[in-house]
Amino acid sequence: MITENIQKLLNEQFIRELFSANLYLSICSYFEDQELDGFANFFRLQAQEEMQHAMKQFDYIHQVDGKVNMTAVDAPQTEFSSILEAFELSLAHEQLVTKSIHQIVKTAIEEGDFATHAFLQWFVTEQVEEEALIKNILRKLKMVGDNSSALYLLNDELSRRKPAPAE
Ligand code: FEO
User: Fold this and answer.
1) Residue 149 C-alpha to ligand 1 middle, in angstroms?
2) Among 14, 16, 27, 140, which residue's Cβ finds the most Cβ atoms within 10 Å?
3) In this structure, is residue 164 part of a structural domain?
4) Structural domain of residue 93, as residue ranges?
5) Residue 83 · residue 39 · CB < 8 Å
6) CB within 6 Å of ligand 1 — which residues?
7) How many CB atoms lie within 10 A of CB 128?
């Protein structure tokens, strides 16, 4: 059983993961419109991973006899001024998600909720990987600059990204 407080935080995180999926689908759509299939593939897979994160939260809340509260999910941004802006927005969003995960971990420790603490360790590691992945592409994008041949190669690289095996 989890406390009301932890239940509330986990539900907020569940909704945040759904928002992440919608945000990445919105960015995917932006790239689809520009025929940048590699970038679109990258964000399509990001969106799928976020749905998996949401379902991990959903399942855990049920496992510990909590209640899932389905609430409205905010609409994501739909217009982007550049490829760079889309990735910078993604990084800022992931940093926000990392902060919120850390806040729930902190609360779980304060409440002596060792099960939730253990459950969240997967997310702590995942956030390190997600931030590193986006930072890596941001560095490449900055190297690419206005060079369309380099952009073509980066798009090609991202088109080869495969779905991560479900954990
Ligand atoms: Fe589920 Fe990218 O945070």
Assistant:
1) 31
2) 27
3) no
4) 4-70+79-159
5) yes
6) 17, 20, 50, 53, 94, 97, 130
7) 11
Q: Which two tokens stand for residue 166?
A: 């479900």
C-alpha 103 chain-centroid distance: 17
Nearest of 46, 66, 42 to residue 119 by alpha carbon: 66
Nearest CA to ligand 1 atom 1: 50
Q: What is the pTM of this model?
A: 0.95
165 assigned to some structural domain? no
Residue pLDDT, tens place only, 56-86: 999 999 999 999 999 999 999 999 999 999 9
Quick one: which atom of ligand 1 is closest to the CA of 123?
1
For residue 98, give the CATH number of its domain. 1.20.1260.10
Asked if residue 167 is part of any domain, the answer here is: no
- Residues 79-116: pLDDT tens digits? 999 999 999 999 999 999 999 999 999 999 999 999 99
- CB proximity list for 140: less than 8 A, separation 6 or greater: 154
Residue nearest to ligand 1 atom 2, measured at CA:
94
Task: Give the number of the atom of ligand 1 that is nearest the alpha carbon of residue 46.
Answer: 2
